[in-house]
UniProtKB/TrEMBL annotation:
Its EC number is 3.2.1.52. This is beta-N-acetylhexosaminidase. Belongs to the glycosyl hydrolase 3 family. One of its GO terms (biological process) is carbohydrate metabolic process. It catalyses: Hydrolysis of terminal non-reducing N-acetyl-D-hexosamine residues in N-acetyl-beta-D-hexosaminides. GO terms for molecular function: beta-N-acetylhexosaminidase activity. The chain crosses the membrane at residues 846-864, 876-896, 908-928. It holds the Pfam family Glyco_hydro_3. Keywords: Glycosidase, Hydrolase, Membrane, Signal, Transmembrane, Transmembrane helix. Residues 59-438 form the Glycoside hydrolase family 3 N-terminal domain. It comes from the Bacteria. Residues 1-25 form the signal peptide.
Length: 942
């Protein structure tokens, strides 16, 4: 028997090693499932940046601070932009349509990619052809930032009008109330811009739009909405999509920090003033930016930088006067806002601060209200010393210079000179350059032109993702007025084949460049053509094309001024049963944009007894209550791209409903975003016990769907945890994080004491706990104003035992007006309660497994020794032990999905799994023996 001992020791050693390795792997896997994403250590990145900076000249360092623009598409060696990026080492450029950086439709995308390749290659080639003789400094290659502001909704918010996928405005995305839609749009935007060659995205806007009855903000549809929580959620999702679509090779610079949603004018034209306290800024304007700066959030949803707007804030700058600089030029205001958490941690970890355009009229008028002078060097220096790392220079030209390139070169020279003369300035430059280089290294990994430029083959995928726009349009379309029930009475049927329809469109056209022809963004026939395509002779013949007429707002305005001049319009309008308006927005430079209001106010007789339908393809808050009362139906579409025009046609013919909800306040219909995002007063708030997942000594149910509430046992001294279900707002969405909730704990009986526990929601759910101090009957309910009705939990501990009951009261009708929007999300108790159950296995489970497997293995070995031979008894026992241990380790690791029911069975799951593994191992050993016996001569025994 001794001849078997070496083999036995070897097998035991292998077994111990196998158990150790698999236990470590199982533990590691379990930890990985629950760990949060962490940021990579910075030590290696810091070292690489220091090595690069040691090789840089002062000119190359200060050049990295500038983000410039240029005219045209000429990037040859004798062009101004070549001199800026090669000779003056400027670190980035921004392409803009108003600078003629893009060519005519059809060639826009390929020519833009060609221009970007030329710019990046110029910088690379210059770094490879330096004088490398003794004594000369060899400068490192540093790729360019190539930036763009492409916000969606085509003109005027986009720079590229054709060739790319037409994506909706931010407000249209906000109207879906669905962050996954924001992520999908961001993904397409990031993928296509990166394929062209862009690596710097100036956006999205994280402004919280404030709309009042007396004034409307100038942002239009360039924001996700008016609720800070939802703007933050949509912003994070959009940023995540941008990073995913670009494969983390495009930096995202959110704007307009610290928020300009409450400003009353465009900061590009004049430095606006917002009189709000610092607390109000933190709760409203700063909240979305802080949400995208959170240190513990996944890196893909985290912005790489923020663009600081030219705006004054009383909460940051106290007594504001005409000479008070905007935040972008105020070092103390910038320091104050960047010391607030989480901005302070984000900035410390490498967040980049980008100035808004320093060549804007707002900056020029601040320094000289007459506009006669402009000291470019002083402006750039003040902006840099205020705390900006990257200085954005567009139309940055002094009155005495021939072009902006000349002005920029002088500014770069002045910065280089000051770098050499002023150590404090040089230190400040080095700090910003370090941030910029770290960001570029995170984008590209290493500085090689083949890492910086995307494969040319990716251009073939640009412009092929229209489905996402259609989905956003379907979910965003909103019936603003009247209610859905009232609309069914007003419009019981869609237009019929012989109904005459007249369309009035506030047309929008644009030019990709100053020498390009007009491109129709929304033409006079856009909506009519959509109706013909979807319901005309080629699509079932629901309408007769000859009964459709279309005119522009300019035509309508002309008719109102002189009816005889457009007599045909008057005839068509008089004969029409349906009058449909496509509204895009007000503009002081386009008097025709007021045509609808003029018709409603000056000639309402022209639309009496007609079905008047208005589709707002821009901001939905431009009409007042009196105007809206004259309409049959008023819809919000929020975007004018083709997918939304098609959606409007489908809504007109009642093929599609408009179930979205406005993300901003609309005073004309009494829709206040703060009110509608408060708890719905008609709901019964669910209330549950809030216990952790079952651990040892607690047997879980064998069903795969865990029960939302377990009936526990309580006694005096116990702490009872509670939580609500998802509390919904008046649009049917979960209430914003931070919504106040009060748990009301009433002690029934002689004492009659009442205790309130105030807390706030996270993900629509609030939590609290209460310690039982006396034997009594305790009644727990919850309120979140204006929602005052909840389930009631009663705990009776008077007799030393807990008797628990749950009451679901019937909500009483209240006078609170219900919203006119059909809810888009209806969270249910069942959906909310289905959560993943994770069982934590303890040392006792391990001991149970070892005893069971060890005893079973010994028994199997004994059987094998008696029935076959000593060798096969040992083999059977070892295989059984290995099978039992492996099965247990798979159970606790969570690797093997079919074992999930055993995992939820608690300790019995350990017993059953170990037994199955034990028998499986024995079975494998028996098959092993049978196979060897068949392969051996009959006279030989094992």
């Amino acid at each position: 028997m001794q001849k078997f001992f070496p083999s036995i020791r070897k097998c035991l050693n292998i077994l111990v090693f196998l158990v150790f390795i698999m236990a470590q792997a199982a533990l590691g896997t379990r930890q990985n499932f629950v760990a949060h994403a962490a940021f990579e250590p910075q030590s290696e990145l810091d070292t690489r940046v220091r090595l690069i900076m040691d090789q840089m000249s002062p000119e190359q360092k200060v050049g990295q601070l500038f983000l410039v623009t240029f005219k045209g598409t000429d990037a040859r060696r004798d062009s101004p932009v070549y001199k800026l990026i090669v000779d003056y080492k400027v670190g980035g450029v921004v392409l803009r349509a108003d600078n003629d950086n893009f060519e005519v439709a059809g060639n826009t995308v390929p020519k833009a990619a060609e221009l970007i390749r030329a710019l990046q290659n110029h910088v690379w080639d210059a770094s490879q052809t330096q004088d490398r003789s003794a004594g000369s400094q060899t400068l490192p290659y540093i790729p360019l930032f190539i930036g763009i502001s492409q916000e969606g909704d085509l003109y005027p918010n986009d720079q590229i009008f054709s060739g790319m996928t037409s994506l909706p405005s931010l407000m249209a995305i906000g109207a879906t109330w669905n962050p996954s839609m924001a992520e999908a749009v961001g993904n397409v935007m990031g993928k296509e811009l990166r394929a062209i060659g862009f690596n710097l995205y100036l956006g999205p806007s994280l402004d919280v739009l404030e709309v009042t009855a007396t004034s409307a903000n100038t942002l239009g549809v360039r924001t996700f909405g008016g609720d800070p929580f939802w703007v933050g959620e949509m912003g994070k999702a959009y940023v995540r999509g941008l990073h995913q679509g670009s494969r983390d090779q495009m930096a995202v610079i959110a704007k307009h920090f610290p928020g300009r949603g409450a400003s009353d004018r465009l900061p590009e034209e004049e430095v606006a003033t917002v009189r709000k306290s610092l607390d109000a800024l933190r709760q409203i304007e700063l909240a979305p930016f802080f949400a995208s700066m959170q240190a513990d959030m996944e890196s893909k949803a985290r912005v790489d930088g923020v663009m600081v707007s030219h705006i004054r804030y009383q909460g940051l700058q106290e007594n504001i006067r005409e000479i008070t600089p905007p935040v972008s030029l105020d070092a103390e205001a910038m320091r104050q806002v960047l010391t607030l958490e989480p901005a302070a941690t984000w900035y410390q970890q490498g967040g980049v601060i980008v100035s808004d355009n320093l060549g804007s009229n707002a900056v020029r008028r601040f320094y000289d209200p007459t506009g006669q002078t402009f000291d470019a060097r002083a402006v750039a220096r003040n902006a840099f010393l205020a705390g900006n790392d990257l200085l954005y220079l567009n139309n940055f030209i002094e009155p005495t210079d021939p072009d902006s390139a000349t002005t920029i070169m002088r500014v770069v020279d002045s910065f280089a000179q000051k770098y050499r003369e002023d150590p404090a300035f040089a230190e400040r430059v080095d700090q910003s350059v370090e941030r910029i280089l770290k960001l570029k290294l995170r984008l590209f990994g290493e500085f090689r032109v083949d890492r910086v430029l995307p494969p040319a083959s990716q251009l073939a995928e640009v412009g092929r993702s229209q489905s996402v726009a259609l989905e956003v349009a379907r979910k965003a379309a909103t019936l603003l007025s009247p209610s859905a029930a009232e609309l069914n009475i007003r419009l019981p049927r869609p237009p019929e084949s012989r109904d005459q329809i007249i369309f009035f469109t506030d047309v929008v056209n644009a030019r990709q460049c100053s020498t390009c022809g007009d491109q129709w963004i929304l033409s006079v026939d856009s909506l009519k053509n959509a109706v013909i395509r979807l319901y005309g002779p080629a699509a079932g013949g629901s309408i007769i094309q000859g009964y459709l007429f279309s005119y522009s707002f300019l035509d309508l305005n002309t008719y109102l001024n002189n009816p005889e001049g457009l007599a045909a319009l008057g005839v068509n309008l008089a004969d029409a049963e349906w009058v449909v308006f496509a509204l895009t927005g007000d503009s002081s430079t386009r008097p025709e944009s007021q045509a609808l209001r003029r018709l409603l106010n000056e000639r309402p007789d022209l639309i009496v007894n007609k079905k008047v339908i208005v589709f707002a393809f821009g901001a939905p808050y431009l009409l007042d209550a009196t105007d809206i009362a004259k309409l049959t139906a008023y819809y919000g579409l929020y975007s004018k791209i083709p997918a939304f025009v098609d959606t409007a046609a489908r809504i007109l013919f009642q093929e599609q409903s408009a179930n979205g909800a406005s993300p901003v306040s609309i005073p004309g219909i009494g829709y206040d975003i703060i009110r509608v995002t408060s708890p719905n007063p008609l709901q019964v708030i669910p209330l549950y016990f809030d216990f952790p997942p079952p651990t040892e000594n607690v047997e879980a149910t064998t069903t795969t769907t865990p029960q939302p509430t377990q009936i526990p046992e309580f006694k005096v001294g116990d702490v009872v945890p509670f939580r609500t279900g998802v509390i919904i707002d008046q649009n049917g969405n979960p209430v914003p994080d931070g919504t106040i909730v009060r748990f009301m704990i009433n002690t029934l009986g002689e004492s009659g004491a009442t205790q309130q526990i105030e807390t706030v929601t996270t993900g629509g759910i609030a939590r609290a706990s209460y310690r039982i101090t006396l034997p009594a009957t305790i009644e727990i309910r919850v309120v979140s104003e204006p929602a005052m009705t909840s389930q009631i939990i009663t705990i009776n501990t008077q007799n030393g035992e807990a008797n628990i009951s749950t009451d679901v009261p019937t909500p009483q009708p209240t006078s609170t007006p219900t919203p006119t929007i059909t809810p888009t999300i209806q969270p249910t108790e069942d959906v909310e309660e289905i959560t993943e159950v994770t069982v934590d296995y303890g040392f006792s489970d391990w001991i149970i497994m070892l005893l069971m497997v060890g005893g079973g293995g010994a028994g199997i070995a004994f059987i094998g020794q008696r029935r076959v031979s000593l060798r096969w008894g040992f083999r059977w026992g070892m295989m059984a032990v290995i099978g039992g241990i492996v099965a247990y380790l798979y159970l606790v690791s969570g690797w093997f999905v079919p074992l999930a029911p055993f995992e939820q069975a608690g300790r019995w799951g350990v017993v059953i799994t170990s037994l199955v593994g034990l028998l499986s191992g024995w079975g494998i050993g028996w098959l092993w023996q049978m196979r060897l016996q068949k392969a051996q001569p009959p006279n030989r025994k094992n």
